[in-house]
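Sharing a chain and its predicted structure for anyone who wants a worked example. Both blocks are below, sequence first, tokens second.
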Amino acid sequence: MSDEVRQFTVAPDDDGVRLDRWFKRHLPQVGFATVSRWARTGQIRVDGKRAKPEDRLLPGQVLRVPPGGDLPKAKTAKPRTELTDEQVAEAEAMVIVQTPAAIVLNKPPGLATQGGTKTHSHVDGLLDAFGHEPRPRLVHRLDKDTSGVLLIARTPGSAAFFSRRFSGRSAKKIYWALVAGVPDVGHGMIEAALAKQPGTGGEKMHVDEENGQPAKTRYRVVDRAGNAAAWVELEPLTGRTHQLRAHMAAIGHPIVGDGKYGGQEAFLTGSVSRKMHLHARRLIIDHPGDCTGGRKLDVTAPLPEHFAASMVQLGFDEAMSDAAPTEGPPPPSKEAKKQAARQHAKQVRKSRPPRRGRGAAATPSKGKR
């Protein structure tokens, strides 16, 4: 245990991290109770000022840590997976754009984002192909059969930055889909709470307004192929599992190729591919630092072969959609809702009349004499 006061300079990768999280990363031997006590008694200082466990740090700030706890352990790199030449080529072929903070991929359909039981081929397993230290990491996911834009963070700091944008819903994601039939209303909002469907092992969602989590999806019909199918833009405003698939099936227009949610109705007659026709077409998200000159990261992913062929077969012209997000502020995040609720409760307490003390005389009632 150290018996001296120490000073640490906050690194760029710790930008925005909470003070207590900084200790968990760099001095894990110091528990939360100790951090809270040190903060409460003024023993922890950030740039010479008292700090709270929930305060967020900025790069370059100087953190004063009192005696106690070991010095930060030297981080040992996770052993890299030896990839074959074919796997390296597969990973590199997916790259759309690279920046100092991110690698943006065009994930093909049929490739899982992460591994699991009986899933050995996945994007996460190919990230060693990029040879960076620290290892790149996932910050969001796409379903196995969904193709399109997938953002990978290069460092822990950029991972935290991008994760906040996804959870805060400031990231704009636009999907293209082909659906069975044509929605009666050309554009609108689907608001239907979703929950895991009983008896499916958590692998399928269904609409459950009583017990489900709120879910919102904006949609717009771009074009139609008679009454058989439609090409739609989808913009998820929440991030529930299988949200787009469950929502389109709920309004009677399942995504073409999605037998799990649409059954036989999800497959068109003729030679249209039976694969899933759901593609993450465009991602617009804030980017850390000045490597984009203050601009947002705006990436578009080309369609996979089967989807492009179906578009041609059904007579759809890709130029009819620029996959632009709907203008307007994103829905409030969970934290913003909690803050609004606290403010509302505070206002209600202020508006209440003062309580009468126990010893106060009661106001005589105006009864008949």
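Comments welcome. The chain has a mean pLDDT of 86.
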